[in-house]
Write a structure and sequence with these properties.
Aspartate Aminotransferase, domain 1, globular, binds pyridoxal-5'-phosphate, alpha/beta, 12 strands, single chain, 13 helices, 7-stranded mixed beta sheet, 15% strand, Aspartate Aminotransferase, domain 2, 2 domains, 3-stranded antiparallel beta sheet
Length: 365
Protein backbone atom coordinates (compact mmCIF):
# COMPACT_ATOMS: atom_id res chain seq x y z
CA UNK A 1 0.00 0.00 0.00
CA UNK A 2 1.49 3.40 -0.93
CA UNK A 3 2.48 5.54 2.03
CA UNK A 4 -0.08 8.26 2.62
CA UNK A 5 1.58 11.44 3.87
CA UNK A 6 -0.33 14.32 5.42
CA UNK A 7 -1.06 17.21 3.04
CA UNK A 8 1.40 19.31 5.05
CA UNK A 9 4.26 16.80 5.00
CA UNK A 10 3.89 16.15 1.30
CA UNK A 11 4.48 19.86 0.59
CA UNK A 12 7.72 20.08 2.59
CA UNK A 13 10.72 20.19 0.23
CA UNK A 14 13.75 18.01 0.83
CA UNK A 15 16.78 20.05 1.90
CA UNK A 16 19.17 20.07 -1.10
CA UNK A 17 22.04 18.23 0.59
CA UNK A 18 25.47 18.14 -0.96
CA UNK A 19 26.64 14.80 -2.29
CA UNK A 20 30.01 13.71 -1.09
CA UNK A 21 29.65 12.34 2.38
CA UNK A 22 30.71 8.91 1.18
CA UNK A 23 33.46 10.08 -1.17
CA UNK A 24 37.07 8.92 -0.88
CA UNK A 25 39.53 10.89 1.24
CA UNK A 26 41.21 13.77 -0.52
CA UNK A 27 38.06 15.23 -2.02
CA UNK A 28 37.91 18.98 -1.38
CA UNK A 29 34.52 19.54 0.28
CA UNK A 30 33.66 23.09 -0.75
CA UNK A 31 29.88 22.63 -0.89
CA UNK A 32 28.58 23.21 2.63
CA UNK A 33 30.37 26.27 4.02
CA UNK A 34 31.99 24.26 6.77
CA UNK A 35 35.20 25.23 8.53
CA UNK A 36 38.17 23.61 6.72
CA UNK A 37 39.96 22.99 10.04
CA UNK A 38 39.05 20.25 12.52
CA UNK A 39 37.88 21.31 16.00
CA UNK A 40 40.55 22.29 18.53
CA UNK A 41 41.95 19.45 20.66
CA UNK A 42 40.51 21.13 23.80
CA UNK A 43 37.06 21.10 22.20
CA UNK A 44 37.34 17.43 21.28
CA UNK A 45 38.52 16.70 24.83
CA UNK A 46 35.55 18.54 26.35
CA UNK A 47 33.09 16.60 24.18
CA UNK A 48 34.81 13.30 25.02
CA UNK A 49 34.76 14.03 28.76
CA UNK A 50 31.02 14.72 28.58
CA UNK A 51 30.44 11.26 27.14
CA UNK A 52 31.31 9.70 30.51
CA UNK A 53 28.02 10.95 32.00
CA UNK A 54 25.64 10.21 29.14
CA UNK A 55 23.50 7.90 31.28
CA UNK A 56 21.92 11.20 32.43
CA UNK A 57 19.73 13.52 30.38
CA UNK A 58 21.20 16.93 29.60
CA UNK A 59 20.51 19.81 32.00
CA UNK A 60 17.33 21.03 30.25
CA UNK A 61 18.27 24.64 30.93
CA UNK A 62 21.75 24.22 29.37
CA UNK A 63 22.94 26.57 32.09
CA UNK A 64 26.73 26.40 31.47
CA UNK A 65 26.33 26.84 27.71
CA UNK A 66 23.85 29.69 28.05
CA UNK A 67 26.04 31.37 30.66
CA UNK A 68 29.07 31.04 28.37
CA UNK A 69 27.05 32.52 25.50
CA UNK A 70 25.91 35.31 27.79
CA UNK A 71 29.52 36.07 28.77
CA UNK A 72 30.44 35.99 25.08
CA UNK A 73 27.63 38.23 23.80
CA UNK A 74 26.55 40.32 26.80
CA UNK A 75 22.97 39.06 26.34
CA UNK A 76 21.20 37.81 29.49
CA UNK A 77 20.95 33.98 29.62
CA UNK A 78 17.14 34.27 29.89
CA UNK A 79 17.14 35.77 26.37
CA UNK A 80 19.09 32.95 24.74
CA UNK A 81 17.43 29.92 23.09
CA UNK A 82 19.93 27.17 22.26
CA UNK A 83 19.13 24.51 19.71
CA UNK A 84 20.19 21.41 17.83
CA UNK A 85 21.81 23.61 15.21
CA UNK A 86 20.46 27.08 14.54
CA UNK A 87 18.08 25.60 11.96
CA UNK A 88 16.25 23.88 14.78
CA UNK A 89 15.67 27.25 16.48
CA UNK A 90 14.55 28.69 13.14
CA UNK A 91 12.05 25.90 12.48
CA UNK A 92 10.71 26.10 16.04
CA UNK A 93 10.16 29.83 15.69
CA UNK A 94 8.36 29.23 12.40
CA UNK A 95 6.16 26.62 14.02
CA UNK A 96 5.35 28.94 16.91
CA UNK A 97 4.48 31.93 14.71
CA UNK A 98 3.12 30.72 11.39
CA UNK A 99 -0.16 29.13 10.34
CA UNK A 100 -2.48 29.24 7.31
CA UNK A 101 -3.58 32.80 6.62
CA UNK A 102 -0.33 34.32 7.88
CA UNK A 103 2.63 35.48 5.82
CA UNK A 104 6.37 35.09 5.93
CA UNK A 105 8.72 37.43 4.05
CA UNK A 106 12.28 36.76 2.99
CA UNK A 107 14.69 37.55 0.17
CA UNK A 108 15.44 35.15 -2.67
CA UNK A 109 17.82 33.52 -3.41
CA UNK A 110 18.51 32.92 0.24
CA UNK A 111 18.99 30.01 2.64
CA UNK A 112 17.41 26.82 1.32
CA UNK A 113 15.88 25.95 4.71
CA UNK A 114 13.48 28.96 4.64
CA UNK A 115 11.05 27.37 2.13
CA UNK A 116 10.51 24.65 4.73
CA UNK A 117 8.81 27.24 6.95
CA UNK A 118 5.86 27.96 4.68
CA UNK A 119 5.49 24.33 3.64
CA UNK A 120 5.42 23.09 7.23
CA UNK A 121 3.02 25.76 8.48
CA UNK A 122 0.70 26.49 5.56
CA UNK A 123 1.66 30.18 5.75
CA UNK A 124 2.14 32.15 2.54
CA UNK A 125 5.73 33.04 1.66
CA UNK A 126 6.54 36.33 -0.03
CA UNK A 127 9.96 36.17 -1.65
CA UNK A 128 11.59 39.50 -2.43
CA UNK A 129 14.28 39.46 -5.15
CA UNK A 130 17.81 40.48 -4.21
CA UNK A 131 19.15 43.65 -5.84
CA UNK A 132 21.54 43.63 -8.81
CA UNK A 133 24.52 43.25 -6.46
CA UNK A 134 23.02 40.07 -4.94
CA UNK A 135 22.14 41.96 -1.76
CA UNK A 136 19.00 42.21 0.32
CA UNK A 137 16.70 45.00 -0.86
CA UNK A 138 15.59 46.06 2.62
CA UNK A 139 13.13 48.71 1.39
CA UNK A 140 11.37 46.21 -0.86
CA UNK A 141 11.26 43.69 2.00
CA UNK A 142 9.73 46.27 4.35
CA UNK A 143 7.20 47.19 1.65
CA UNK A 144 6.17 43.52 1.37
CA UNK A 145 5.07 43.35 5.02
CA UNK A 146 1.30 43.33 5.61
CA UNK A 147 -1.08 42.99 8.56
CA UNK A 148 -0.87 39.21 8.05
CA UNK A 149 2.92 39.01 8.21
CA UNK A 150 4.25 37.24 11.29
CA UNK A 151 7.90 36.68 10.42
CA UNK A 152 10.46 38.44 8.25
CA UNK A 153 13.93 36.97 7.72
CA UNK A 154 17.12 38.80 6.79
CA UNK A 155 20.06 36.49 6.16
CA UNK A 156 23.11 38.62 6.86
CA UNK A 157 25.55 37.75 5.30
CA UNK A 158 23.25 36.04 2.84
CA UNK A 159 23.61 32.39 1.94
CA UNK A 160 24.10 31.61 -0.97
CA UNK A 161 25.16 35.01 -2.30
CA UNK A 162 27.77 35.90 0.39
CA UNK A 163 26.81 39.59 0.52
CA UNK A 164 25.93 41.59 3.63
CA UNK A 165 24.03 44.74 4.48
CA UNK A 166 25.36 47.28 6.98
CA UNK A 167 24.16 47.81 10.53
CA UNK A 168 22.62 51.25 9.98
CA UNK A 169 20.46 50.15 7.02
CA UNK A 170 19.47 47.14 9.10
CA UNK A 171 18.59 49.34 12.07
CA UNK A 172 16.47 51.60 9.86
CA UNK A 173 14.78 48.50 8.46
CA UNK A 174 13.95 47.03 11.87
CA UNK A 175 12.49 50.39 12.86
CA UNK A 176 10.10 50.13 9.91
CA UNK A 177 8.88 46.64 10.79
CA UNK A 178 5.68 46.70 12.90
CA UNK A 179 5.98 45.00 16.26
CA UNK A 180 3.52 42.23 15.41
CA UNK A 181 6.17 40.90 13.00
CA UNK A 182 9.21 39.06 14.36
CA UNK A 183 12.45 40.08 12.64
CA UNK A 184 14.80 37.12 12.41
CA UNK A 185 18.34 38.13 11.41
CA UNK A 186 20.19 34.97 10.45
CA UNK A 187 23.82 35.72 11.28
CA UNK A 188 25.34 32.29 10.63
CA UNK A 189 28.35 33.97 8.97
CA UNK A 190 28.48 37.27 10.83
CA UNK A 191 31.98 36.67 12.25
CA UNK A 192 33.34 36.76 8.67
CA UNK A 193 31.57 40.02 7.74
CA UNK A 194 33.15 43.40 7.18
CA UNK A 195 30.04 45.55 7.61
CA UNK A 196 29.81 45.15 11.37
CA UNK A 197 31.09 43.04 14.25
CA UNK A 198 28.97 40.36 15.93
CA UNK A 199 28.79 42.48 19.09
CA UNK A 200 27.34 45.45 17.18
CA UNK A 201 23.95 44.01 16.21
CA UNK A 202 23.21 43.11 19.86
CA UNK A 203 22.00 46.70 20.26
CA UNK A 204 19.01 45.86 18.03
CA UNK A 205 17.76 43.51 20.76
CA UNK A 206 17.75 46.32 23.29
CA UNK A 207 16.13 48.82 20.95
CA UNK A 208 13.25 46.63 19.75
CA UNK A 209 10.99 43.97 21.29
CA UNK A 210 10.66 41.81 18.17
CA UNK A 211 14.17 40.79 17.07
CA UNK A 212 15.99 37.45 17.06
CA UNK A 213 19.65 37.14 16.06
CA UNK A 214 20.30 33.58 14.91
CA UNK A 215 23.84 32.25 15.29
CA UNK A 216 25.63 28.94 14.98
CA UNK A 217 28.64 26.88 15.97
CA UNK A 218 28.57 25.16 12.58
CA UNK A 219 30.65 27.62 10.59
CA UNK A 220 33.42 29.63 12.31
CA UNK A 221 33.55 27.28 15.31
CA UNK A 222 33.86 24.18 13.16
CA UNK A 223 31.22 22.13 14.99
CA UNK A 224 28.79 21.45 12.12
CA UNK A 225 28.78 17.74 12.95
CA UNK A 226 27.73 18.30 16.58
CA UNK A 227 24.74 20.57 15.80
CA UNK A 228 24.62 23.58 18.12
CA UNK A 229 23.08 26.96 17.35
CA UNK A 230 21.28 29.66 19.27
CA UNK A 231 18.94 32.58 19.03
CA UNK A 232 19.59 35.83 20.89
CA UNK A 233 16.14 37.24 21.56
CA UNK A 234 14.67 40.63 22.45
CA UNK A 235 12.26 39.10 24.94
CA UNK A 236 11.68 36.02 27.09
CA UNK A 237 8.38 35.63 25.21
CA UNK A 238 10.38 34.86 22.07
CA UNK A 239 12.51 32.31 23.92
CA UNK A 240 9.31 30.82 25.35
CA UNK A 241 7.76 30.56 21.88
CA UNK A 242 10.71 28.47 20.72
CA UNK A 243 10.72 26.29 23.85
CA UNK A 244 6.98 25.66 23.71
CA UNK A 245 6.86 23.85 20.38
CA UNK A 246 9.80 21.51 20.62
CA UNK A 247 10.89 18.46 22.49
CA UNK A 248 13.03 18.87 25.62
CA UNK A 249 16.76 18.04 25.56
CA UNK A 250 17.47 19.28 22.04
CA UNK A 251 21.21 19.80 22.58
CA UNK A 252 23.14 16.69 23.59
CA UNK A 253 25.71 16.83 26.39
CA UNK A 254 28.76 16.36 24.18
CA UNK A 255 27.63 19.13 21.84
CA UNK A 256 26.91 21.50 24.74
CA UNK A 257 30.32 20.83 26.30
CA UNK A 258 32.13 21.29 22.98
CA UNK A 259 30.33 24.56 22.22
CA UNK A 260 31.05 25.93 25.69
CA UNK A 261 34.74 25.11 25.29
CA UNK A 262 34.87 26.49 21.74
CA UNK A 263 34.02 29.96 23.07
CA UNK A 264 37.20 29.94 25.21
CA UNK A 265 39.60 30.25 22.26
CA UNK A 266 39.23 33.69 20.69
CA UNK A 267 42.80 33.62 19.39
CA UNK A 268 42.06 30.56 17.32
CA UNK A 269 38.78 31.88 15.96
CA UNK A 270 40.53 35.14 15.11
CA UNK A 271 43.11 33.17 13.12
CA UNK A 272 40.32 31.38 11.24
CA UNK A 273 38.73 34.70 10.33
CA UNK A 274 42.10 35.93 9.08
CA UNK A 275 42.48 32.73 7.06
CA UNK A 276 39.03 33.27 5.51
CA UNK A 277 40.01 36.83 4.54
CA UNK A 278 43.15 35.52 2.90
CA UNK A 279 41.08 32.94 0.98
CA UNK A 280 38.72 35.69 -0.09
CA UNK A 281 41.59 37.62 -1.65
CA UNK A 282 43.05 34.55 -3.34
CA UNK A 283 39.73 33.42 -4.81
CA UNK A 284 38.70 36.89 -5.94
CA UNK A 285 42.00 37.34 -7.74
CA UNK A 286 41.94 33.82 -9.20
CA UNK A 287 38.36 34.17 -10.44
CA UNK A 288 39.07 37.60 -11.83
CA UNK A 289 41.97 36.12 -13.83
CA UNK A 290 39.37 33.79 -15.40
CA UNK A 291 37.15 36.77 -16.25
CA UNK A 292 34.72 36.05 -13.41
CA UNK A 293 33.47 38.75 -11.06
CA UNK A 294 32.23 37.24 -7.81
CA UNK A 295 29.64 38.88 -5.58
CA UNK A 296 31.20 40.95 -2.80
CA UNK A 297 31.72 38.26 -0.17
CA UNK A 298 31.48 38.89 3.55
CA UNK A 299 31.21 35.20 4.40
CA UNK A 300 33.41 32.07 4.22
CA UNK A 301 32.36 31.31 0.65
CA UNK A 302 31.99 32.99 -2.72
CA UNK A 303 29.16 33.19 -5.26
CA UNK A 304 29.52 33.88 -8.95
CA UNK A 305 27.97 33.38 -12.38
CA UNK A 306 29.95 31.15 -14.71
CA UNK A 307 30.76 32.64 -18.12
CA UNK A 308 28.07 31.22 -20.43
CA UNK A 309 29.02 32.73 -23.80
CA UNK A 310 25.51 32.40 -25.17
CA UNK A 311 25.04 28.81 -23.96
CA UNK A 312 22.34 27.73 -21.53
CA UNK A 313 23.64 28.79 -18.07
CA UNK A 314 22.15 25.73 -16.34
CA UNK A 315 23.93 23.39 -18.77
CA UNK A 316 27.24 25.22 -18.35
CA UNK A 317 26.84 24.92 -14.60
CA UNK A 318 26.17 21.18 -14.71
CA UNK A 319 29.15 20.61 -17.01
CA UNK A 320 31.49 22.60 -14.76
CA UNK A 321 30.24 20.88 -11.60
CA UNK A 322 30.81 17.46 -13.19
CA UNK A 323 34.31 18.45 -14.32
CA UNK A 324 35.17 19.74 -10.83
CA UNK A 325 33.82 16.56 -9.29
CA UNK A 326 36.04 14.52 -11.60
CA UNK A 327 38.90 16.65 -10.29
CA UNK A 328 37.99 15.76 -6.69
CA UNK A 329 36.27 19.03 -5.82
CA UNK A 330 32.73 19.38 -4.58
CA UNK A 331 30.95 22.75 -4.91
CA UNK A 332 27.31 23.80 -4.65
CA UNK A 333 25.03 24.21 -7.65
CA UNK A 334 23.56 27.67 -8.09
CA UNK A 335 20.62 26.17 -9.96
CA UNK A 336 19.61 24.19 -6.87
CA UNK A 337 19.75 27.46 -4.90
CA UNK A 338 17.69 29.59 -7.28
CA UNK A 339 20.21 30.84 -9.85
CA UNK A 340 21.10 28.47 -12.71
CA UNK A 341 24.60 29.14 -14.03
CA UNK A 342 25.98 30.21 -10.64
CA UNK A 343 28.26 28.37 -8.22
CA UNK A 344 28.69 28.68 -4.47
CA UNK A 345 32.18 27.72 -3.36
CA UNK A 346 33.27 27.47 0.27
CA UNK A 347 36.74 28.73 1.18
CA UNK A 348 38.93 25.71 1.81
CA UNK A 349 42.48 25.23 2.99
CA UNK A 350 45.16 27.02 0.95
CA UNK A 351 45.67 23.78 -0.97
CA UNK A 352 41.93 23.36 -1.62
CA UNK A 353 41.62 26.91 -2.93
CA UNK A 354 44.52 26.46 -5.37
CA UNK A 355 43.18 23.10 -6.52
CA UNK A 356 39.75 24.59 -7.07
CA UNK A 357 41.09 27.47 -9.18
CA UNK A 358 43.20 25.14 -11.29
CA UNK A 359 40.28 22.73 -11.79
CA UNK A 360 37.94 25.57 -12.70
CA UNK A 361 40.43 26.81 -15.29
CA UNK A 362 40.45 23.30 -16.79
CA UNK A 363 36.66 23.04 -16.64
CA UNK A 364 36.19 26.32 -18.49
CA UNK A 365 38.88 25.64 -21.14
C1 LIG B 1 24.86 27.10 7.72
C2 LIG B 1 23.74 28.02 8.00
C3 LIG B 1 23.05 27.95 9.21
C4 LIG B 1 23.52 27.02 10.27
O1 LIG B 1 22.71 25.97 10.43
P1 LIG B 1 22.98 24.99 11.68
O2 LIG B 1 21.66 24.34 11.83
O3 LIG B 1 23.35 25.85 12.84
O4 LIG B 1 24.09 24.08 11.26
C5 LIG B 1 22.03 28.83 9.45
N1 LIG B 1 21.70 29.75 8.55
C6 LIG B 1 22.35 29.86 7.38
C7 LIG B 1 21.97 30.93 6.44
C8 LIG B 1 23.38 28.98 7.06
O5 LIG B 1 24.00 29.08 5.89
Amino acid sequence: MPLKLSATASKIPYYPTAGGYSLPDGVALLASNECPDPPLPEVVAAASAALAATNRYPDPSYAPLRQALSDHTGVDPSLIAVGNGSCEVLLALGEALLEPGTELVYAWPSFSVYPHLEAASGATAVRVPLDDDHRHDLDAIADAITDDTRLVIVCNPNNPTSTAVGLEPLRAFVRRVPEHVVVLIDEAYIEFAEQYRPEDSISLLQEHPHVVLLRTFSKLYGLAGLRVGYGLCSSTDLVGAVERVRQPFVVNVAAAAAATEALRHPGETGARIAQARESRGVLEAGLSALGIRAARSEANFCWFDLPADGQDPGEVEQRVIASLRDGGILVRSGGALGRPGALRVTYGTRGDNERFLAALRTALA
